[in-house]
């Protein structure tokens, strides 16, 4: 009996010593919180981030979203643009049930990182993802719409799709109500002007030159210092001028057919004169627009615009540039 009693007492003692040890074992949630705490203390350490985020037991931990945010900030602070973009893709995959605002934030940061890296294709890719989550996201609509003209595909089918997207997004911007927190002047200069410029660009690419002119007219009215818009406006006007010039020869031929004086010949002469006058008016308009494009400071645009300008100006002035530089200097003063 003593032996049994001793054995029983030993068992109780063993359990007594074991229970405190069991009580000290952290719960899975506590273990995950500890991993997050370790990472939080050294936020740039990707290995510690992975140890926490990749732990299956921590999948639903309350700090998981915060860990992603901390690493995103670390990448941004160090200008690691590739890291930002890769992390946004990882966030999309690993956090499928994240709140809408969080998804938009991460993808928007990746879009900004792509812009900083000069990767237009990635800007459009991430911008489209933002719009898929938030169709009325002003920033993404504006950035994608204005980036597409800088990265138009050469493949005809891909080009058509890209231009259609730019047109859709830009038109949506022109129809949006101004958010209360955005000043009217800022709204016009940074949103409405560029949106009309994108629409004009698309019409220019589609050879819808009259429509393009209307859009660029809106752009330069909003921002008279938008040199690219002046240049594209001038190009659209030049195309219209060339088309008008093409009508002159047939008009002369029609007059020459009517050798007999009378109403029929008079009508042909009047028609020819009207066509010539129309051409001259359109040419003068194109010249005036291109002078504005040349007068503004971007050297690359000035050089390209000057070539087109001289092709219209010189034939009107005995194949010389006489007086052109004076007109450009005058326009520079006006645009200041």
Ordered list of secondary-structure elements with their pairings:
Layout: H1 2-23, H2 28-40, H3 46-53, H4 64-77, H5 81-94, H6 100-116, H7 120-133, H8 138-147, H9 156-175, H10 184-205, H11 209-222, H12 227-245, H13 248-257, H14 263-295, H15 299-316, H16 324-335
Query: What kind of sheet is the major sheet?
Result: none
Total count of helical runs of at least 4 residues: 16
Low-confidence stretches: 1-23
Beta-strand content bin: under 5%
The secondary structure category is mainly alpha
For the secondary structure, the number of strands is 0
- Helix content bin: over 70%
Shape: elongated
The termini sit apart by 111 Å
Question: Can you give a write-up of this model?
Answer:
The chain has 336 residues and is an all-alpha fold.
Provide a short characterization of the protein structure.
The chain has 336 residues and is mainly alpha-helical.
Properties at a glance:
mainly alpha, elongated, 336 residues, Serine Threonine Protein Phosphatase 5, Tetratricopeptide repeat, disordered N terminus, 3 domains
């Amino acid at each position: 009996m003593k032996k049994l009693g001793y054995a029983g007492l030993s068992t109780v003692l063993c359990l007594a010593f074991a229970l405190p040890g069991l009580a000290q074992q952290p719960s899975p949630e506590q273990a995950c919180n500890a991993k997050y705490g370790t990472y939080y203390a050294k936020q740039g350490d990707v290995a510690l981030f992975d140890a926490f985020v990749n732990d299956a037991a921590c999948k639903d931990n309350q700090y998981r979203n915060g860990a992603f945010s901390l690493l995103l900030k670390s990448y941004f602070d160090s200008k690691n643009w590739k890291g930002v973009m890769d992390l946004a893709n990882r966030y999309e995959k690993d956090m499928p049930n994240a709140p809408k605002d969080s998804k938009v934030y991460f993808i928007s940061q990746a879009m900004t990182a792509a812009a900083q890296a000069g990767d237009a294709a990635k800007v459009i890719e991430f911008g489209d993802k933002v719009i898929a989550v938030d169709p009325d996201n002003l920033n993404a609509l504006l950035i994608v719409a204005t980036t597409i003209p800088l990265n138009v595909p050469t493949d005809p089918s891909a080009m058509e799709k890209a231009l259609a997207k730019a047109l859709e997004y830009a038109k949506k911007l022109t129809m949006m109500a101004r958010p209360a927190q955005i000043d009217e002047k800022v709204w016009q200069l940074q949103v409405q002007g560029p949106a009309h410029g994108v629409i004009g660009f698309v019409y220019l690419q589609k050879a819808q030159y009259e429509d393009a002119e209307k859009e660029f007219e809106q752009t330069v009215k909003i921002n008279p210092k938008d040199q690219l818009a002046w240049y594209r406006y001038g190009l659209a006007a030049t195309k219209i001028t060339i088309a008008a010039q093409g009508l002159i020869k047939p008009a002369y031929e029609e007059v020459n057919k009517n050798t007999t004086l009378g109403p029929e010949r008079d009508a042909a002469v009047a028609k020819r004169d009207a066509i010539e006058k129309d051409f001259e008016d359109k040419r003068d308009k194109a010249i005036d627009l291109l002078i504005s494009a040349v007068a503004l400071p971007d050297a690359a645009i000035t050089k390209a615009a000057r070539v087109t300008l001289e092709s219209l100006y010189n034939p009107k002035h005995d194949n010389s540039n006489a007086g052109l530089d004076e007109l450009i200097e005058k326009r520079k003063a006006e645009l200041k």
